[in-house]
TrEMBL record:
PANTHER family associated with the record: L,D-TRANSPEPTIDASE YAFK-RELATED, LD-TRANSPEPTIDASE
Protein family per UniProt: Belongs to the YkuD family.
CDD domains the UniProt entry points to: YkuD_like (cd16913)
A matching Pfam family: YkuD
Protein name: ErfK/YbiS/YcfS/YnhG
Source species of the chain: Koribacter versatilis (strain Ellin345)
Amino acid sequence: MEIGRQFRGSARISAATLVMFVVIGASLSLSAEEPADRIVIEKSAHRMALYRSGLLVHQYKVSLGGQPVGPKTRQGDHRTPEGQYFIEGRNEHSHYYKSLRISYPNATDLQRAREQKVSPGGDIMIHGLPNGERFIGKLHLLHDWTEGCIAVTDEEMDEIWALVRVGTPVEIRP
C-alpha cells in the first residue's frame, strides 16, 4: 500500500513538473514571436535582416528588381529603392504570396522625381513568389526578377508576415 502511495505521489510531481515545463516553453516561444522593430535590406549582399531591440532575429536571402544597382529613380526602371522607409500596409491577397507595402516614395524620392520630371513609381513590396508558383522555392534567387520589390520564398514570407507590423522601419542600403 505504501509503495502505491509513493508511486502516485511521484506521478503527481512528474505531471506537475511536465505542466510547468510546457507553460515555461510556451511563454518562451511567445516571447520569441514578438514583432521585429526594424528591417535592414542590403542590396549588394541580397540580404534582408529583421531586428528586435538591436539584435538580429532572422536573416533571408532575397531577389531584387531586375536592375539592382543604384537607387530607384523613376517608374519602370526595375530598381529597388534605397533609403529610409516603413511598412505602411499588409495584403494577404496580393498577386504574390502575401505582401508588405514599403512607404516608397519618401520625400527625397518625390523631390528627385520632380526635378527629373518623371513619375517616381510606387507599389514597392516585400513579398513571396507569384501565386501558384511556390514550387520555385529558393530557385528564385538565381537572378533578380522583380519590378523593384524584395522577394523571398513563400515559407519565409509566412515567417516575416508573423513578425512584421505596420509602422516597422525599413532601411534599404545599396
